[in-house]
Amino acid sequence: MEWEYSPAPESSAIADIKDRYLPFIDGSFKEGSGEDRDTINPGTGERLSTVSTVDASDIDRAVKAARRAYEDVWSQLPGPERGKYLFRIARAIAERSRELAVVETLDNGKPIKETRDFDVPAAAQHFFYHAGWADKLQHLGLGPAPRPLGVAGQVIPWNFPLLMAAWKIAPALAAGNTVVIKPAETTPLSILVLAEIIADADLPPGVVNIVTGAGDVGSTLLNHPGVDKVAFTGSTAVGRRIQRELAGTGRKITLELGGKGANIIFDDAAQDQAVEGIINGIFFNQGQVCCAGSRLLVQESIADEFIERLKQRVETLRVGNPMDKNTDVGAINSEAQLGRITALMDAGLAEGAELWSSSCVLPKNGFYLSPSIFTNATPSMRITREEIFGPVLTTMTFRTPDEAVTKANNSPYGLSAGVWTEKGSRAMGMAAALRSGVIWDNTFNRFDPAASFGGYKESGFGREGGPSGLAAYLETDDEAVVQ
Amino acid sequence: MSHLAVSKTYKLFIGGAFPRSESGRTYQARDNKGNFMANAALASRKDLRDAVVAARKGYAAWSKATPYNRGQVIYRIAEMLEGRRTEFVELIMISTGASIKIATAEIDAAIDRLVHYAGWTDKLAAVLGSANPVSGPYFSYSAPEPTGVVGILAPLRSPLLGLISVIAPVIAGGNACLVVAAEQDPCVAITFAEVVATSDVPGGVINILTGRVSELASHLAAHADVNALDLTGADADLRESLEQAAAETVKRVYVPKGVPDFAAAPGTARLRAFLEIKTVWHPTGALSLSGGTSY
Fold first, then answer.
1. In this structure, are residues A435 and B174 in contact, taking their beta carbons and an 8 Å threshold?
2. Which residue among A10, A104, A290, A387 is the active-site one?
3. Catalytic: A291?
4. Domain limits at A370?
5. Is A290 considered catalytic here?
6. What integer pLDDT is reported at residue A172 of this predicted model?
7. pLDDT, tens digit, for every residue of A213-234?
8. Domain count of chain A?
9. Which of A128, A134, A193, B279 is most buried, most CB within 10 Å of its CB?
10. Average model confidence (pLDDT) for chain B?
11. For A143, which of B247, B267, B277 is closest by C-beta distance?
12. What's the rounded Cα separation, in Å, for the pair A193 and B4?
């Protein structure tokens, strides 16, 4: 008997997508002086809207507006008042959550169930959490009177456009800084809806400025002499360049970069749960997650049986229209990203790994890829070392816990890792031995504003979320200097 | 017949041993009046690479030691230093031209600094970590861990207090370090290495090179197995190029905001600069408080 799902599409009407969007500078939406850019709906491959982009003069205006707002208003405002603005924003995100979810799915290509159940609520929660810190900075354990840094320049990626905006803006504002932030050029819409929320919340002009455009805009922003703090989430290659360009400036930097997370399955793991965790780890958001569990390490004694079980489950994933509420795996964010993923998959085949892909039928239009698993991979292959940033899992085996640790840590990255075992002491021991900023035992891809997130090694430095995330936006208990 | 003094050969301190530079080179350490004090080893790039290998080994042992044990060992360095205070007072006076009063104040402060950091090792997780009240049935905590191997350019003009003020916070956090000593004061630095060598510090946890900062620093900054840099001893021009080199492997870089006042009480900035915060999540299931059932 055939069991088919009926289509369950979310309505795109609620997004009320405008034909054109403008950057948000000094409290109002203004024409940018750069060229217009179309933003594409990855689910269909068609134009969704057009965004006016900025040039260097607009960036200069935005930074000056942020400086003025910092000096005249925001840094003078008592903590409780700053907090109330952030609470307002959190509430308004929740109020417009369905609209934001649809905007995000249309612009990004991720399934509506993810934007609805994760991206948007988590963004609201992030503002709510940090709102509460605004009048409690003296309790962070960073000295009696931590001070804001000034104007924060922030550049965010396309994989979680609204959530990354919240991760950047909320702690910066709670700590008393003002912000100039640039979204990715392929996903500018949700943050510009957030700008409406910010304007409706009567946030003083210039406290949050949103500049639109591609990488050159980001680079100009982060190198602007009026910026006191730099926060970047994106690739390690760009992060490295930012660190190099800012050498000698004394500017405080947070870099949230790439990853190649190991997901380690021991022979005593609850296998059905582990299968679900692996799928969440690598196919959540089409694998376009810096902390994705993209390197599967399975204990040799169960490997064949386990990988077969994993393939059977992946075969049942529903891949397709991101706007359908039953969709598990949506569209890749852009044609360019799809090209980068398939190029690395070609490299994996050329180096001798075996590729298996789900037999799901992909939509004709839009940017789609079948969930895929490489087996027989070796530690030196590009698919094992490099971040694929797509729904592609690389699989290796191990025999002993020591070997698992060695293989997992054998990476220039150190962002995330997962451990699946029923043995508590082994779970705790592995968590200590793995050189990664986030460890998930018997779960994967859990996030919370109260739990700090960030990388070891070339996955970057600085934290977001929790007390240590706030420290990144404060002058804190610094070393005394000779006056 | 009067005793002819046996003068000391100052060597490098790598992996708990005192080798000469593999290059066979030395340079003349001079006192503040310009008189010959001793020949110091002029470390080469190869010595630096050897020291990184030693530091990586030292890190493996040190990061696994218990915080209590690390605290005791750092306290032991203070004890050994106390026992040699007269020697250091004399050495600081000769090397820097300081008065006996200033030299005495420096060693007193240096000993106290070690004691201060000895007491930090088992408090870092409590002060910098947290139990995270996450929204779901998970036990989540964040705790600091050492960054790894830290390359340090020791400050100038504070040969003992400055040296200890940069080393102690790094090792208190569980890191291993490789220090390029202040060029003018190699004798103080290597005499301090003798203190370290007799203080139960595992070999490789502290490695001290003497030589030219201008020759060694760029290799230190570019070395892929060095995780972090403390550029306290680099001047502004050098700092920029070293930070550029450090970016290639996304190293953490600590740059003080001015000339550090080592006489002042240290804050936590130097500790925090060389720690990574790790967040761990464990499911707690339906029995936990956040699992939805009250008992």
1. no
2. A290
3. no
4. 262-448
5. yes
6. 98
7. 999 999 999 999 999 999 999 9
8. 2
9. B279
10. 95
11. B267
12. 84
